[in-house]
Design goal:
Number of helices: 2
CATH class of the largest domain: Alpha Beta
CATH architecture of the largest domain: Roll
Shape: globular
Number of domains: 2
Largest sheet: 8 strands, mixed
Length: about 120
């Protein structure tokens, strides 16, 4: 399938509470990674299926939300196309060292999702 969902990420107001809740509810394999000044990132291992991560919401006061990421071949082209189709770009072509690049987008109906281009 073209453009599959490849990562699901929780941006939460309370990372500790979210870790406890999801670990106990689903028995997910959660691993905390120190991101230095950026805080802690928790990876989510689910066994089969798409895994993800959790982090403290980077926008103070914003509600907690899950963001699905969709794989694209060219982040710049896909972000530009989304804008042309009426999307609002929240974050554009943000590099993740040694991993890839992402954009966060809100579609014309108000749904938020991420685009992900893996490092080649």
């Amino acid at each position: 399938m073209a453009n599959p969902f490849v990562h699901i990420e929780l941006n939460t107001s309370d990372l500790g509470k979210a870790n406890t809740f999801y670990r106990e509810l689903f028995e997910w394999d959660l691993k905390n990674m120190d991101m230095g000044p950026g805080g802690t990132y928790t990876t989510i291992g689910v066994g089969e299926g798409t895994g993800g991560g959790m982090m403290k919401h980077p926008m103070e006061g914003a509600p907690s939300l899950w963001i699905p990421y969709i794989l694209v071949d060219d982040i710049a082209t896909s972000t530009k196309k989304a804008r042309k189709l009426g999307a609002t770009i929240i974050k554009e072509n943000v590099p993740v060292p040694n991993m890839g690049v992402f954009s966060i987008i809100t579609d014309p109906t108000g749904a938020t999702f991420g685009l992900w281009e893996a490092r080649k």
